[in-house]
Records
---
Amino acid sequence: ISKIIKDQFMKGIILRPGQILSMEDTRNIASQYGWEIELIQEDEINPFERLVESYQNAYREGTRLVQRPPVVTVMGHVDHGKTTLLDRIRKAKVAEGEIGGITQSIGAYQVEIRGKKITFIDTPGHEAFTEMRARGAQATDIVVLVVAADDGVMPQTIEAYNHAKTANVPIIVAINKIDKPNANIDLTKQQLASKLGLVPEDWGGDTVTVPVSAKTGKGVEDVLEMILLVSEVADIKCIPQGHARGIIIDSKLDKAMGPLATLVVKDGVLKVGDYVVAGSSAGRVKALINENGKRIKEAHPSDPVQIIGFDEVPDVHSIVYVVDDLDTSRALSQYSKGQLQKEKSVTNRRHVRLEEFLSM
Ligand code: GTP
Ligand code: MG
């Protein structure tokens, strides 16, 4: 190192350890020592961009688009009653079976209300699950923000609201637990306004608030009514046919079944036998499982579904694409792997640090 620094210094070029050299300078200096610099990899074209483009074009043209059911994410502070509200809507009993009564993963369910489907995503309210709340908000069309009327606006209420705002989706506030003697709807509304800037409609603002009791069922119909109303205004569309794509909201490694991914289909039809890619994991759909644990043959836009068949657990942020064949899916996953490695490797940086250059 010091020899090169000295040599260059003698030529009037001042180099410092840690300095980043341009490719040109690197070549220049290397040639003085009879070395050649080889760039291992030029920036290649991202093959995912071509995939995305075909969907984007369809959305731009708009002619093939049709309505799809809304995807509604239920968010809010821990214990404010999200799972109980969803149980009430689904006539199920998830909340009671949860360990410590705390939701620890994302659950996705579809219900049909007067012939209209709604997909619900439940999220945990415990502060440790920020990431899951962020993910839930990204995959959704509408957020139902649950605020317990006996507790008011709390830290994760604020956090959840911020995720919804970032995702730029409409918010419906469900003021829950109104059956409790210490429930204070007015105080909750005041806090919504002062802490979140969400001024209720009946106070002259434009925030939809619905008083509800997930326990007694009072107001639950109104929540559903508002969801259908808001989703009509939001004009939620999809490409109904062709290769599916969807967003992964949860994934894990199952001892018996291997990598499992829960996704919400956004476009197209996802079928058993389809070749899929999600980031660096590839595969073929061996089975599709709906929320009731039933095997289904295909899934349509806004359907929540579990895929068995990925070769590794896909990232929860990733988008699943159906592609023509296994080669394509492998090539795309390889590309993603390469990108990941690139981020770690030094050989590919266009700028080379002096020490790295010298240790080559
Ligand atoms: P996390 O998922 O852990 O954030 O909680 P959660 O928001 O899903 O709350 P959950 O539905 O598990 O309810 C928490 C507790 O509040 C449970 O004991 C419920 O029975 C109770 N609860 C939920 N809704 C109501 C309600 O409307 N009234 C009353 N009185 N209790 C309720
Ligand atoms: Mg819950």
Note: DSSP finds ten helices and 19 strands in the chain.
---
Amino acid sequence: EKEGFEHFTLKEIFEQPKGVRETLMRRLNSQNEIVLEGVTLTADILKDINKVYIVACGTAYHAGLVGRRAIEMFAKIPVECDVASEFRYRDPFVDEKTLFIAVSQSGETLDTLQSLREAKRKGARILSIVNVVGSSVARESDDLLYTWAGPEIGVASTKAYTTQLIAFYLLALYMGKLNGRLEEHKYFEMIEALKLMPEKITEVLDQSKEIQKLAAAQFNNEKVFFMGRGVDCDIAYEGSLKLKEISYINSFAIAAGELKHGTIALIEDNTFVVAMATQDKLYEKMLSNIKEVKARGAYVFAIAKEGNDQLTKTADEVFFIPTTLDALTPILSVIPTQLLAYYVSALRGNDVDKPRNLAKSVTVE
Ligand code: M6R
């Protein structure tokens, strides 16, 4: 059932336009209003919520980082985002005024499930973003927002991630409208931009050959790191995890502003740096970070929005994603990082769909 693709992972990367369309369009009515079937959060309930906790593991946690920004930006409620194995053991301050959001593709990750139970015991309202219908996390939640990614076979999470992002944008806009903190024109601007996403993802996938070429040139490079600012930092974390998980390259990610606080010491000739530079208000700052690593011999692969042409003079290679609202770039900018991880892994002859030492769903503590 790989439908002509060499691996499930690649097939699933290419299924993202469909997963994103399903997750989004099933929730929009003809007036562009968001209808969330499994969510019974009312304006009254939301009025009493003064804090949101997003808790998950791995890639789902990285989706949560983007979700945190979206909820703070559109619903203007303070949000914390935590990895489940940490949340559980640090006696977090949770009460009846807390909305606890669990994110999980499988809905069976034990740390996420136990965190949910702990939050529930403390009186929080539980909302989950889950892909597998009827899973444990789904069953134990008050509110449920399914991602419609379809089954994900590859251990590396790809389409689950982009559909989790869509679920978060929908939820953030929904909450912002419900509590009256989101202006109408901003709401509709976001909805219009979201509806263009499946097409734009396809445009990105159409450029996969560029990434394939880059992978062919760099797949033996063991000195790699990712950097970004703002929401690009969240994508740097996700891109780096994907690369290390399936290529076994010792990659890591940093907030680009932290470069001079340590990491720059690692840069030497041909260190491969993936620089995420999609955010308008942080663009100049990223440009200087790119120049700093270039000056020390790094090979820089930048990911930016169409139109930022001066980057081609600064970075060694630039991948352009279609323009969109800055809040929505993660849906597009993560895709070249997924493709890079995939092609590097395949070129190294790894078992891409089943990387060593990993299980699809971690049901032990
Ligand atoms: O099923 P879950 O979304 O709860 O799984 C969480 C993580 O184990 C998972 O995202 C893992 O990090 C992936 N293999 C990353 O690609």
Note: Residues 57-60, 104-106, 109, 112, 155-157, 245, 361-362 surround 5-amino-5-deoxy-1-O-phosphono-D-mannitol (CB under 6 Å).
